[in-house]
Amino acid sequence: MISRKICLLGASAVGKTSLVRRFVHGVFDDKYLTTVGVKIDKRTVESEGQEVNLILWDISGEDEFSQLQMSYLRGAAGYLFVADGLRPATLAKVIEIERRAREALGPRRFVLAINKVDLEADWRLDEAELETLRKQGWKLFRTSALSGEGVAAAFDELASAEADALS
Amino acid sequence: MNRPLQPTVPPSTAEPAPGDDQINSPVDGAAESHHVEPKQVDEELETLRRLLLDDSQISDLRRRLDDPNIRAGEAAKILADAVRRAASGDPELAVALRPLVESGLHESVRRNPAVIIDTIYPVLGPAIRKAVASAVRGMVESLNQVAEHSFTMHGLRWRMEAWRTGQPVAEVALKYSVIYRVEQVLLIHRETGLLLQSVGADPAARDQDLVSGMLTAIQDFVHDSFSVDRDQDLDRLEIGDFQVWIERGPRAALAAVIRGSAPRRLRATLSDALAAVHRDMRMRLEKFDGDAAPFEAVRPALEECLEQEFKENRKGFSPAFVALCGLLALVLGFWGFGLWRESRRWSYLTQVLEREPGLVLVERHGDYASVLRDPLARHPSELAAEAGFEPGEPNFELRPYLSFDAPIFERRARNILHAPEGVRLRYSDGVLKMAGEAPRGWIGTLPALTAWLPGVDRLDTSGLTASDDLEPLNAAVRRANEIQLEFDSEITTIGPNQADAVAALASAIQDAEREAAKVGRKLEITVVGRADESGEAAYNARLSQQRAAALQAALGARGLRSDSYSTRTEMVEAGRDRTASVEIRVAGATP
């Protein structure tokens, strides 16, 4: 069976751990527990007739107190960047992390999940900025760990992109 | 529903997607240069013609082939590229170059070792440090184990064994401490932290993919947190009863999940297995694409790491066990001996009781015995004492009965009949026989008295003589026995003054013989001659013999058949009477 290391990256409290919990265990809990270091989880998905093990590295979010450890990203097949639709600063953080990761480890496949779509009415993201990213080839997904919307699609995109690359 | 925010930009118009290889290989370029257009045919024919006919070009080619300097210069230009291409493809070049490199190194070390030493020092230093550190750690571990067990029961036992076998205590301690089991071995791709292969399984362990990832993450965390050198790694984790030993190679790492305390040599086993994996799967490790299937092939190498060692079974028996067995044997022995002695005593007592008249053993349970006893019989306790029983043992229950055993019956008959001393009784098969002398009156009461004796079918008194009828005989015998003939010293003849005594004696004997004939008795008559002890013994013996013979002759002269008498001699003390006399005994009738 094929295994893929996928890293979840983004600012703190954007919902990386919640997305993993939704994707792997199908549950949501609105208690917030900050991730220290890294949490690893696994889900097997089927992509184009092939089973793929996604090994999900849920890496603690970057904030003023903790810097992202680039060594966690080594060997990753893809990144799932997560931004919080309510906080524009988290999108800027994603763009910064993507640049740093590319500089340190070279280009990788990635998708961007803009989380908390259940609160879309309150989103404050700049639509123009998102359009720019799309033009640069970024794949954007609107997700909600609460409702589950878009979560599987975002992960499946990473799995299928890999399957494409292999075939 | 799970659509992207906007339709995805077609990849062709986008920038190269991250991760795409865009490097053009030189091979592709070469292929393009061989692409020939038809319109160029004429130009090439022209070129061919020039090559064949132009002398200066041929000589130029020839010069380039013949001149070693030029050839060397041209080869130098392409050598690096040629080596690079050869190395990227197959390992043949490495094989071809190995002897050269080895001999080159050898030569270099021989001429000037400093160059090589300076070169490898940065590598060698850490390597040696690591080796020494691991050796020291191994020693400390063993010392720790010894210290931990020093004051326990184990410790004492190990010390005993060390003292007994002459081994160091540490060795004995290690022998018993090294009990471990490699539960699981994970082969992890270092770059990605993905699980390549795993063998063994522990139901308690989590998903091995996750374990593999976590171990890698922990490793990364340690590196980043402690900013240690790249060659200093986390070697071991301890989680409760488990240890995880991590052995790293350039591309892959082995993680062994161990229960218990494993010996240092397990490191070598892990290291060997990992080296084998790197040797066999080098290319696959370098180009790992997430597909772990090819790594099935290394399972046997990993399975060799699933070592386990159990606590050695102790040979022989523990002293405590032996002592216990000894004690048990002793107890059993005592018990058995007691049983044996008891059974011996009882079998003896049973035999004795069977023989003993007037006692019957009815039943016996352990220390209790029920016995029938005639009042005239012995008490069974006397017999028990003879059989070796302690006083008071066994516990007899006596019940009285009348015994018809002959000795008891005869005793009872004597008591009831008040039999005189001279009467003997024999009881057999219901017949009571009596013999001896008794007063006529007593004999007359017998038939009536015997009616009181149960068990007597018939009374046989034919052996009894009424003592009244014997009186004349007894008087004659008493008279004869009282007469003594006296002799002077040295004299053996009967003097004339003894004639009356001889006549009285002869008359008494004649009376006795006559009375004896009357009551049907026989007489035994002995003539006795006596001498005193003064003088020679042989002479005295002859004197007493001659005196007896003289009396015998004198009685014969009186008409008695004295030659049928027996003679006897006696010595008497000096000064006592030297005599001759006759002794008559009435032979009793036996019943």
Write a structural description.
The complex is a heterodimer of chains A (167) and B (591). In chain A, strands 2-3-1-4-5-6 form a 6-stranded mixed sheet, sandwiched between helices. Helix content of chain A is 32%, strand content 28%. The two termini of chain A are 15 Å apart. With 167 residues, chain A is α/β, with parallel strands linked by helices. Chain B has 591 residues and is of the alpha+beta class. Chain B has helices at 26-33, 41-53, 55-66, 68-89, 92-111, 113-148, 153-165, 169-177, 208-226, 265-280, 282-286, 299-303, 319-355, 380-387, 406-417, 440-450, 471-482, 499-519, 537-557; strands at residues 180-189, 195-199, 236-239, 242-248, 252-260, 308-309, 359-365, 368-373, 395-400, 423-428, 431-438, 458-466, 484-486, 522-532, 566-572, 579-587. Chain B is rod-shaped, with a radius of gyration of 68 Å. Residues 1-33 of chain B have low confidence and may be disordered. The interface between A and B is large, with 47 and 38 residues.
Task: Please summarize what this structure is.
The complex is a heterodimer of chains A (167) and B (591). Chain A has helices at 16-25, 88-105, 127-135, 151-166, and strands at 2-10, 38-47, 50-59, 78-84, 109-115, 140-142.
Global Rg of chain A = 15 Å
Largest β sheet strand count, sense and barrel closure of chain B: 6 strands, antiparallel
Question: Counting H and I runs of at least 4 residues, what is the number of helices of chain A?
Answer: 4
Strand content of chain A is: 25-35%
SSE class of chain A? alpha/beta
Shape of chain B: rod-shaped
Taking all residues together, what is the mean pLDDT of chain A? 87
The low-confidence parts of chain A are 163-167
